[in-house]
Amino acid sequence: MPDSPSESQAVPDSPTTVDTTFTPPSIILPAIHRSESYTHHSPIPPQLPEGTPCILGVDEAGRGPVLGPMVYAVAYLPASQTHLLTSHGFDDSKKLTTAVRESLLKTTCTPGTDLHDWLGWSITSMSARDISAGMLGTGKGYNLNAQAHDTTAQLIREVIERGVNVTEIYVDTVGPPVTYQAKLQKLFPNSKVTVSKKADSIYPIVSAASVCAKVTRDVTIDVLAGEQEMGSGYPGDEKTKGWLKRERDPVFGWDARITRYSWRTVTDLLEKGDGPGVVWPDDDDEEGARITSFFGGSQEGGLAGWYGRPVLDF
User: Fold this and answer.
1) Which CATH class is domain 1-314?
2) Distance, first Cα to last Cα, the chain
3) Residue 19 in 3-state DSSP?
4) Per-residue pLDDT tens digits for 238-259
């Protein structure tokens, strides 16, 4: 995992707010502008006694878009306090309006509220650049499912390492539920793991994670878009299509901080574009050097090294 700022680290050379209704503490502007993946943990809920059995839910936002990060989130609270989630109306984030999602997370972040007292949460924002670097890396690459599985495991691990007694884990599946559940159960033998399709609609604790992920991604998209009309980032969104058409440089394509170059949408547009073609010959040149050698070398150098870096390193 790249070194990243957390909620407690001040960054004096960067603005601390963005133009949105609610800016959650999971928005780390320097990392977003540098297209770095990062993790944010909320404080441990103040009413959570040490050792209290807790349930934890996992969900994501932004798996399908061609623009912006994929955000994974976990939410946790004592099993005895799950009624708070239903009373506040947590549900699959896609079923809630933007205003309702923001209100729920804002309440969770507001001291003195019951959600703040009992509900903890964390996110990992996987940047577009790092997603592409993994998927386009050397060898077989680091596919999106593997990135998602590793991010989920790392988030759960970090929550447990912070002293939370996680006894039950609920996860919205990525890939076959049975296989994924067995993988997580092996990693976390002291917790009962349940992996399910539509878990964000079935289990309120997964719904809470869904809200944390969705709000964080939506605000991140606002940050990346600035004054531009970028839409949701999904390939089928007309505003996103318009942005891709307007912002494509005929030679260099798009801003790599925003665009997932590993997506078919992007490669198709580049291949069909009106820019000059580029051919990288493999034949030896007259000096005996190969152009492709520029892409090789150590993991730390050259484009192969950059594209081969995994999103997570643990």
Assistant:
1) alpha beta
2) 7
3) coil
4) 998 888 888 887 777 888 888 8
